[in-house]
Every structure is written in C-alpha cells, then in structure tokens.
C-alpha cells in the first residue's frame, strides 16, 4: 500500500519536472526568436498594411515640420521632394538628379538652397513604410541621407521582399550604426506617425504621385525635359530674381 502511494507521488513529481522543463524550453525558444528578430531588424510589432496606413494618415493633420532638412536653414531657396522609397521613378531621380542638385546647390559652401525630403507613401507598394522607418531611424544617428541614398540604390533587393527589414539592417550595419539603438527604433515604430503626417502634408500640397519636387513652392514639371536641367534652370531663375530684388 505504502509502496503504491509512494509510486504515485513519484510519478506526480516527475510530471511536474517534465512540465517545468517544457516551460523552460518554450521560454528559451521565445527569447531566441525575439533575439533573432532583433538581430535581423524585424519589428516587434507588424507595421500597418497600406490600407491601415491610409486610414492612419487620414486621421492626422499635415505638418511641414516632419520633413528632413539638408543644408542651411537660412538658404534663400527651398527645394522640397516628396518620395516613396519603393517607387522606381524615385530611385532613378535620387540616383542622379537629386544627388547632383544636392551636391551642387545644397551641400556646397554656397548655401544657395536647402533640400527637404517628405515621405509620401503611395499605398501601392508593400514595403514603403518600413523603408521610410529605416531611413528615419538611421537619422537618429545622423545617417539619414546615406541611408536614404542606399535604400534607393538597393531598391530591387527589398521592394518585393517578405522581410525587407533584413536588407535595411544590412545597410545600417554597412553604415556603422549602433545596431541596438537602430533596432530599438524600428521595433517600436518610432516614426510611424511622422511618416503618416508627412503623407497627409503632401496631400494638402496637392501631391498625387512621386517623385514630386517643388522649388520655392513651384511644382517642377519633371517631364518637361532633363530633370536636372529643369531644376537647375528654376534655381538659376530664382537666384536672378532674388538678386534683382536685393538691388
């Protein structure tokens, strides 16, 4: 009798041990998955779908302050760019015209113009929000513009990917970012509201496609000829006008 009771007790203890071991395995597995997601750049919470993003943007007022500035705030000419990182035309523009205009009129010591980039997520591409998030999170470490350029230059690697954040993490590593800080930013979707506000601001400005560029508030007709020459001509005209006003 006593032996039977003892045997049952031992079996119960064994079951508890197995349950405890199973729980530890589950917890360890969950921790490993979390760390794996962090190391690969995966967000802790899924970003909104294009439709969900549209709904979020519709609820928010536009605000010019969410644009990313390059150049001197006091520069007399303002160039504004509205982009979707998944847009092939935006990648083409960024890789040549945008880069050259910034080099020749914004990044030089002339302080001729300042450049402001706004996110304008179209909703027709699945990975535009995480791309915009990656660029802004890199901006926390002073690397927005290098990230901006590299996301565009590697667009074909990620724009249809199921895990685009892996490519963005690779770019962040190439730029020498603090990966812990970068992943913390993307994991909490830190700039989701700013990206949505930027989209709304573009709508309020009449933007309907990307890239859309303004020079001192005047929309640039990028189909009118070579985009670089068109923008350069508008800059030169504005410089002449400002010079005449100051005489």
Quick recap:
The protein is an alpha+beta fold. Helix content is 58%, strand content 9%.
Walk me through the structure:
The protein has a single domain (40-245), classed as Glutaredoxin (3-Layer(aba) Sandwich). Residues 1-43 have low confidence and may be disordered. The longest helix is centred in the N-terminal third of the chain and has 38 residues, at 2-39. With 247 residues, the chain is α+β, with helices and mostly antiparallel strands. The protein has 10 helices and 5 strands; from the N terminus they run H-H-E-E-H-E-H-H-H-H-H-H-E-E-H. The protein has helices at 2-39, 50-58, 88-106, 128-139, 144-153, 155-158, 164-174, 179-187, 192-204, 227-245, and strands at residues 68-70, 77-83, 113-119, 212-215, 218-219. The chain starts with a helix and ends with a helix. It is globular and about 55 Å long. Helix 3 (88-106) links the parallel strand 2 (77-83) and strand 3. Helices cover 58% and strands 9% of the residues. It has a 5-stranded mixed beta sheet with strand order 1-3-2-4-5. Helix 4 packs across helix 8 (179-187).
């Amino acid at each position: 009798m006593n032996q039977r009771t003892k045997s049952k007790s031992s079996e119960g203890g064994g079951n508890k041990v197995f349950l405890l071991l199973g729980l530890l395995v589950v917890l360890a597995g969950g921790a490993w998955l979390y760390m794996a997601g962090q190391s690969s750049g995966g967000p802790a919470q899924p970003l909104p779908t294009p439709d969900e993003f549209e709904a979020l943007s519709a609820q928010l007022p536009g605000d010019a302050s969410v644009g990313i500035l390059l150049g001197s705030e006091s520069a007399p000419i303002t160039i504004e760019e509205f982009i979707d990182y998944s847009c092939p035309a935006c990648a083409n523009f960024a890789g040549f015209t945008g880069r050259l205009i910034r080099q020749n009129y914004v990044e030089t010591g002339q302080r001729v113009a300042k450049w402001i980039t706004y996110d304008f997520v179209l909703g027709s591409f699945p990975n535009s929000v995480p791309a915009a998030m990656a660029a802004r999170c890199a901006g926390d470490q002073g690397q927005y513009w290098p990230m901006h350029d590299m996301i565009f230059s590697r667009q074909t690697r990620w724009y249809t990917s199921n895990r685009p954040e892996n490519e963005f993490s690779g770019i962040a590593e190439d730029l020498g970012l603090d990966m812990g800080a970068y992943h913390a930013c993307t994991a909490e979707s830190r700039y989701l509201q700013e990206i949505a506000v930027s989209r709304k601001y573009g709508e309020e400005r009449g933007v309907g496609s990307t890239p859309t560029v303004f020079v001192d508030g005047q929309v640039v007709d990028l189909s009118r000829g070579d985009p670089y020459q068109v923008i350069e001509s508008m800059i030169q005209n504005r410089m002449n006008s400002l010079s005449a006003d100051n005489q």
